[in-house]
Amino acid sequence: MAKYKVRCLNNIAPIALETLGDDFEVTEDLGEADAVLVRSADMHELDLPDSLKCVARAGAGTNNIPLEELAVRGVPVFNAPGANANAVKELVVCALLLASRDVVGGVEWCKANADDENVAKAAEKAKKQFAGTEILGKTLGVIGLGAIGRLVVGAAEALGMKTIGYDPFKTPEVAREISPDMRFVDNLDDLYAGSDYVTVHVPAVGDNIGMINADAIARMKDGVKLLNLARGSLVNEDDLAAALASGKISTYVCDFVSPAVLKMDHVVAFPHLGASTAEAEENCAQMAAQSIRTYLETGEKVHCVNMK
Predict the structure, then answer these.
(1) d(CA 155, CA 32)
(2) Residue 1's pLDDT is what?
(3) Which residue, 144, 162, 246, 282, shows the most beta carbons closer than 10 Å to its own?
């Protein structure tokens, strides 16, 4: 008979249950759960039972979990930092290319002209409206050099880009370990002024919320391309709209949709695809499950985000 019961609030990769082992069984009754595995489900309004001993998020962000409330109750919350970093990095590479060349517009044109028997000839005339620029030799400013940001630096440099990095929690020594070719700055003004592309990889907490605002945008290059695959709330939508309308920002690529952003021109939006790969889901599920198992079997808190 299993010792512990786990409630999965979202579909979790099967490897999670394999990782938990025979002492764990899945329950559909939250009221009897010893542990909760969650991805995107909002836990803030849930009536969490007294039996709950820990929560694990199969991902990095934890804004869907009542961290402070659970801390007061002595219930640790674990996350899976870095488990989806490669998946997000690869989507950033995709975003760089989509920001540079109007592939989306070209695809839409092809679909719209599918019934034209002379579409191939028409395409030769139409393609000039979708012309773009190359990323080779351009400069990418990377805000946040954690698990994702450092991978983005490496990928961009491998594609022939120059990089500028900013992270108030990193030292110059750590920055050199990330990349000896990256220009590490301690002032965002320097990053904004020197970057053809800006990508943001910081959590949506404190002063980070709304950090990309009119003041920050004014310090960027004219025609800058802005990538946000971190959190939608990092960007002030009103200021973004004004910058896109004026051409100050030439393209905005984001992984978080809202009615306002979707109505703006020069936006390429994804429906939160950053960690949506089979590999990332397995990595996150396995790491989250291992944290649950370790805590319930030994009391050790691994990747705990709300308690010491």
Answers:
(1) 45
(2) 78
(3) 144
CA 84 to chain centre: 9
Cα dihedral 33→38→40→41 (10° resolution)? 0
CB 44 within 8 A of CB 14: no
The tokens for 235 are 């960007």
In order of their start, the domains of the chain are 4-82+277-298 (3.40.50.720), 85-269 (3.40.50.720)
pTM to 2 decimal places:
0.90
CA 156 to chain centre: 17
Burial of 169 from C-beta contacts in 10 A (0-12 / 13-18 / 19+): exposed
CB-count burial class (<10 Å; 0-12, 13-18, 19+) for 240: buried
CA distances from 33 to 29, 36, 116, 232 (A): 7, 7, 59, 32
